[in-house]
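To: structure subgroup
Subject: Chain for Friday's discussion

All,

I'm putting the inputs and outputs inline so they're searchable in the archive.
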Amino acid sequence: MAPPRPPPFLLSTALLLLVTASPLSGPAPQDPEPSRSSWTPPRSPTPPRTFEGLWAAVSEQGPSIAQYTIGQWAAKAVPATAAVRNDACRIHSRAFVREFQRLTPWAVRMWDAGAKIPSGILEGNIRSLGHFDQCLSIRVDLDRMGGDEWREERASNPVPSQFSGKYCVTTLNIEALPSANQKMFDYFLDTMTLNRRHLETLHNETGPPIYPIFSLVEWAACIPSSCSPEDLETSMQEVVDEIAEPLGLKVKARVNAESCYVDEPREVHEADYFVIGAIVFFLVVIVASSAYDMARRRKIKDLDRRDGVASRVFLAFSAPSNWDALMSTDEAPPGALECIDGIRFLSTLWVVVTHKVLTFAQEPWVNKSILIASLTHWSKMPLVNSMLNVDTFFLVSALLKSYHFMKELDEGRFNILSSYAQRYLRLTPAYGVVIAFYSTLLVFLDRGPTWNKYMGTNAEQCREHWFLNLLYVNNYIGYDRMCLVQSWYLAADMQLCLLSPLLVYPLWRWPRRGAALLTLATALSVALPFATTYAYELPGFYHVGTSNSLLNVYMQYVYMATHNRMSPYLVGLALGYLLHKLRAQKVTLSKSAVAAGWLACFATLYAVIFGPYTMFQYDHVYNVLESSFFSAFHRFAWAVAVAWLIFACSKGYGGYINSLLSAKFFKPLSRLSYCIFLTHIAVLLYGTSRLRASIYVDEYVLVHDYAGDIFITLIVSVILHMCFEAPFMVLVKLLFGKGGSSKKAVVSASDESSSRGSSSVVQLATTEKVRR
């Protein structure tokens, strides 16, 4: 006859260790010297070989566990064992146990703020985060509420009488030991971690926040502030060893300092004061400039004719003028590639979607399994296989760079050093402001269980490596400690921009030889990612079925490496040359040719997005040649398809597609693209870092959160654009003699090619009226 099943709590204890994986200790000892827990789980002489056998083994332990009072279970919530050598921590923890058994409010609140057994463990809900704010709000003065026991203990061990709640998150690595039950335990562990427990090795390491987290078992504890992370880890490890080993499990407990929080103000450094002072200075300048601009508008009819250089420098910071420039929808001059406005902004939205999915994959959900299930839905491929947006920006960046270089060469005014300097000075001011904010003030905005992991780590990395960003080499140097993870694109695009004259000039001077050289370079750009993927046996794309260590190699050596991402850029150089040659010509194509072009375009875009559906499935068998070919050709194919779209729209064969992409409402939005790129990751990480508990997520929640993130990002981007990007763009034009006294000025952040984005964004140079 099968033994009776143990209570659900005991079964959860046996099968899913995390439900009891909190720092355990015995009930508060009454003798002066601390002692170990008085309860030790009995060891089964022979491991059970069936589910019934497992239940029988747990049932043997059941009476001991069941007879434990709630007060004795509360004793296991704080580090009070003899292994804890911190006297203050141990004594304060013992005081908590005594007061909890008396139902003293502060002790009950401390116990209540700790983690509890979550529901939906087998759906991936394995991060029990307790109540962050309740824990930090606890204040205790034992001299006033400690009783006689406290006074006796303090007489022999003088420790502070006051402490507060300290919130810590313990991470647990659970493995099944060799036994008759190993397969069964492995099954449950694989289910609750969605088969990724052997793939994730980096979730406790520093580095770009781009890796999925599905197997991170977390258990929050509220302990006295006198306890250190090491005290909690020692106590936790001692107890999980007692519980896990008899059940055939091995658990490694870890408590990082960054995972512990107390309610005290952050230390303010000199750099913080400097950034605050700089912000105040610019605000004063903007207010003064805006007031001066409004006054002159009322008094002077022909504004620009009366303005000298000093006045125009001062007016560069005028909020009304910069707002007018941002919102302008005046007609673009003949030949302008207006479709790029829509391409730019829509691609930017897609970039934010990509990063939203990446941050979602790192959040605690009660139904985390839905993310894995989404891989089987064909309709979700644009979300899963979305890291193609950056290739659009590479293409457009090169297109505009090539087009303007050709134009300047024709006019005999090409100056390569001036072009480099202008580009650097246009991109860097707003970029530097965001880096400064990351390095200093961002960490002061809020807090949460993972705030230090994301916001704190980003701030630290920016303080260490800001200069690598400003030198635009951070995609090759300092990858593991990268400041602004999306900034790899700025570095790659800047590097390609610096090298582009080596291909553009031969195309202009010796067209046939230049075309041959460009073709050779394009072939090399396809061969390099093939060789890298093949040599390292990497995936052909970012895939959650790949180990984090392998994803780390892929992101560093393929995805973020300039030499492996240049094929779309080279396609853009060729397109810019073609449009330059045909700029004054009417291109006549037959209807069949146009139809064939659009059919090939849509077929290619479809194939690149939806084609690797089977490769994204968890049960797909890895094939190095398949991955290498996809890695080599899919970005090139995407770029060729988008190149046709731009060419057709610019030559009058875009139809309704061109009408949509060239709509006037895209103009202001496209001008914000660079600032959206710079700020959106901070907005996304802000939402992730302040999460207090696991959430339920479905398509509605994704859309709802995404809409809110876009709205907040747009507000922040408008501020960044008007206060820094637009003013410095005007100053750069004045510095290089392009400001003049005309009423027209470039309102985008780049004349030629400024492509940016996490995939970054390109600003199309258009001439529009911005000063009235």
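Points worth raising on Friday:
DSSP finds 31 helices and eight strands in the chain.
The chain has a mean pLDDT of 84.

D.
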